[in-house]
Design a protein that fits this description.
7 helices; 2 domains; two-stranded antiparallel ribbon; alpha+beta
Length: 208
Amino acid sequence: MSGQELTFASGSAAWLFGIVGALLALVVWHFTWKAKVIARLGDRPLIQRMTASTSTTAQWVKWSLLLVAIALVVAALLRPQYGTREAEIQNRGIDTVIVLDLSKSMMVQDVAPNRLKAAIVELESVLDTLSGGRVALVPFAGTAFTQCLLTTDMDAIRSYLDDLRVEDMPIGGTRIGNALKHALTVFDPEKREPGSDKKDAEKKAKEL
């Protein structure tokens, strides 16, 4: 389905045409005032011979071209668009849930600078290779929670990854099975259970 009509994406810039109109009025006033001054000076044929090297027509053309150029710049700022077309865009990516261990063992420095930072660097490299799809983030230790639901905003995922700290986990340990079960619920929000977000996980830790 398509439409053939002219629209403007930035109609708020239309006021700039007022400046073009003011410049046009100023140019007209200038030439009118100049003609009156010359008429008051005396012998018009003599003055015309004295100013023969200056063409009034050329000056009009010069100013007209300048005003037209300014008007075209303003028109471009309005971002005119002609015609519309509706199309169905298919997302060929897949949904992915990153399950990241935040137990104290991730602070071991057998890889530089430590396991956690090395894992985050690798995950960010994976994000760079994804084309389409959504990504969610589930940190875990003794419990798991959803740090970020499925999103196409990879910058948000990177930000969450950079902010993760082992100290954020309310319960120690490495319950990877529990984390994987929780990750599956991220794909289907209706299956989410209590304790699925960070606040619930912290509440559960206090109860223990």
